Amino acid sequence: MKFRRVSITTLAIALLWVTPLKAQYNLRNFSDAPQSPLRFAPHTVGAVISDGGDRIYVLNARKNQYLKIIVHSTGSRAFIAVFDSDGKEVTVLTENSEPFEYKLPKTGKYYILAYSSPSVSFYDFTVRVQ
Length: 130
Description:
Elements: H1 8-17, E1 35-37, E2 46-52, E3 55-61, E4 66-73, E5 79-83, E6 89-93, E7 100-103, E8 108-115, E9 122-129
Parallel strand pairs: 1-3
Antiparallel strand pairs: 2-9, 3-8, 4-7, 4-9, 5-6, 5-8
């Protein structure tokens, strides 16, 4: 059996042509995570969430409201994921992400998954709905 030598340059060029794949998360994969209703204090439009451990925050919102999330910090492999009322992934955020703003397409429940990674990292983010 003969093996061909492939130069590092050739391999690097070939890898540049490969389209990077974005991981798609499914809310059902996190069904073991505890759920908490996300309610804001009276006369407010947002909340700061600081915690550790996986948790799904459930938000009831109306069509045409804007959901804004600013991630202040997450652990090394932790992330914040937003799912629409059908459970479809809208976005995934880390502490390196820009603030996220999304016009809600319909009235219903929206899900914010705070995933703290296998090592239970802490996360801190702000959620606003207007």
